[in-house]
Amino acid sequence: MEIPDELRGHPDMGAALELLGAGRLDEAAVFGEKLERVLPAHFFPQYFLGFIELRRGRVQQAISCLTLAATHAAATPAVLVSLTEAHHANLDKDRAGELFQRALDALDGDWPGLTTLVQHALEKGWYAEAEAGCRRLLADKTDSASVWFFLGGALHAQRRFEEAVEAYEQCLLHKPKSPDVYLQAAWTQHELGWYVDAQETIQQLLEISPENAMAHRESGRMHFHFGGHDAARDAYLAAHRLASSGQAPPRLIKAVRASLREWCSTNKAAYRCVVPAQHAEVPAPRTIPEGEAALWPAFKGELRERFVARFDAAEVFPQQFSVLSSDGHLFIDDLVTTPDVYPKKGTLIKYWNRAGELLLEAPPHQRIQHGACVLIGGQINYFHWVFEGVARMMHVEADAALRSLPMVLCSGLAASQLAMLDELGVTPERRLFLAADESLLCDDLVIPSLVTQGHVIPAEVVSFLHDRFSHLVPRNAARRRIYISRNRLGRRALANEAEILPLLAAKGFETAYPEKLSFAEQIALFGGAEAIVAVDGAALVNLFVVPAGAKIGVMAVAGLSTPHYHCVSHHRQHHFTYLHGRLVHDQAKPLDVQDLYLPRARMEQFLQAF
Fold first, then answer.
1. How confident is the model at residue 586, as a pLDDT?
2. 382 within 8 A of 375, measured Cβ to Cβ
3. Could you tell me where the beta strands, DSSP code E, fall in 443-505?
């Protein structure tokens, strides 16, 4: 926030900024209102209050305050920038672009100010505005390597890759020995499919920076793309040597991505189809505002075949639990959460090409498991643990020959997740926890496929979970109305909870914090509910035990969440509603953990049903 010179010495300014920085917005607003009374003709009070409203997620109020501030002749470009941010939050990109142009005009001729504004736009993800700022700067001075670099980044983010390459080439004309520019140019050429050009760019980088670890890593990627497996391995090892400060070289494995079903057929390994592929469809949810169900992802699609495979000499890798056969075939389809994204995460698969060939970096440690075991996997995340790990146990319970076998599990499980294993009869001696830095070499591995993939959760998964855990719900318990608060978690909380809580309390809702409860207490809480209101989050996994007919209100930002919980509610015959809110933009937090602001009127509309 930019402070006018005439207010820097104000006795309350330091305290107000400290409150603002600490997130104590209500207390900071008191200062803004006080300043508004003292300086009614000054732009700063409205700017300060608008800035606070933007942090609260009250976008319309922020726009009103900042618009008033911007009408003052003395208003600074910083006001226009905050107003730009408010209109972006209001999804009005055209108006945001107009305001950013005004900020550029206000800084015309101020090279440092314009450069700072471009960097701010890039940090905020306003790539069209950053491009406009770069072009304004380049109109006055075409030999600035940094501005050409910023322009390349803005164009790349808009997927205008050819123009981005041209910008990076201009940058290199003025700063020919910049490693970052060569890397960005090569990545952009790779996006275009210009693999030969990308390889040449990386080679040029290695000539000027032979000790650049990232350049060697990218050189390996290019070699692998063209089938040069040995050269790729050498380049990757060189990158590791340069970046790892004397650590032992990694164990690299060349593999091929394969279909488990086809491999089992070719190699005469056991493979049993449990449920054939089938079509699934879930009705669209009710939303507030009404008619916004189309903002959610598709609610229909094909559920893949579910199976159980079994073969000898397999290596299980940690975290998402892909499996490598002894002849170098890697199985990820139907075993990992997002198989098409998995190779790009870089944890296990370092290089891949269109032929399905892969270069793996195995974990540094390897354990050996003698005797049969079952791959269950799961993740620390509660949603993935329940609907992937625990759901896989359906296959185990259906086959008497598997019920006593050890299970390969994710390490680091919370007490509530271990309690689920207790309830399912998986005793401690049957738990083979696989840490992130080790793989498990098995001489007899049973591999059940994932049961849940994509947005649609099969009805039988919800029934399985309900049947296995509903005994923890006290009999004849009074039905309760529960608000699930996230405000002690520090992420994805309800920003205006203080405004919403009285509305809920008036309808008999009590506040609960599931993270403070044991697993049995959570199941008892949800299993005794006649209504649940919550911000979209992992606690809603427990909807599988909420009685049929319950009213469920989930506060979410359409487009940033997936409709898993609506699917669970549909199978449990709940009355489910999404209450659409807005993100509270906080630059210090990643997008997926931003808090949510819900307009009061939307909660009032939902509560009319009570």
1. 64
2. no
3. 445-448, 480-484
Task: Report percent pLDDT > 70 for the chain.
Answer: 98
Buried b (16+ CB within 10 A) or exposed e, 191-226: eeebbebbbebbebbbeebeebebbbbbbbbbbbbe
459-607 folds as Rossmann fold (3.40.50)
42 Cβ contact list (under 8 Å, min separation 6): 4, 35, 72, 74
By CB atoms closer than 10 A (0-12, 13-18, 19+), residue 17 is middle
Q: Say if residues 80 and 102 touch (Cβ distance below 8 Å).
A: yes
Q: Which two tokens stand for residue 77?
A: 């470009």
Which residue is listed with tokens 């009250």? 58
* 459-607 has the same fold as 109-176: no
Residues 355, 226: contact at Cβ < 8 Å? no
Residue type, 128: A
Cis upstream peptide for 289 (omega within 30°): yes
Beta-bridge partner residues of 288: 579
The whole-number pLDDT of residue 18 equals 83
Q: What is the rounded CA–CA span in Å between residue 65 and residue 24?
A: 19
Any idea which residue has 């690299």 for tokens?
A: 252
Give the number of C-alpha atoms closer than 13 A to the C-alpha of residue 407, restricted to the C-beta side: 26
Residue 392, classed as helix, strand or coil, is helix
Flag whether pLDDT at 44 surpasses 90.
no
Tell me the C-alpha to C-alpha distance, in Å, between residue 120 and each of 123, 131, 158, 397.
Answer: 5, 12, 17, 55
The arithmetic mean of pLDDT across residues 454-481, rounded, is 90
Per-residue model confidence as pLDDT tens digits over 262-307: 999 999 999 999 999 988 888 888 999 988 887 776 667 778 899 9
Give the pairing of strands 438-442 and 357-362.
Answer: unpaired
CATH topology of domain 178-249: 1.25.40
Whole-number pLDDT of residue 54? 85
Which range among 43-47, 342-346, 367-371, 445-449 shows the weakest confidence by mean pLDDT?
A: 342-346
pLDDT tens readout for residues 218-272: 999 999 999 999 999 999 999 999 988 778 889 999 999 999 999 999 999 999 9
Q: Is the CATH code 1.25.40.10 the one for domain 1-106?
A: yes
The burial of 591, by beta-carbon neighbours within 10 Å (0-12 exposed, 13-18 middle, 19 or more buried), is given as exposed
Residues forming a β-bridge with 532? 482, 552
- State the DSSP code for 371: S
* Strand ranges for 474-528 from DSSP E: 480-484, 509-512
**Strand intervals (E) in 282-328:** 286-288, 300-303, 306-311, 314-316, 323-325
Q: Find tokens 């939303």 and name the residue.
A: 287
Q: In what order do the strands lie in the sheet with 251-257?
A: 349-352, 357-362, 251-257, 329-331, 323-325, 314-316, 438-442, 365-369
Residues 109-176, CATH architecture: Alpha Horseshoe (1.25)
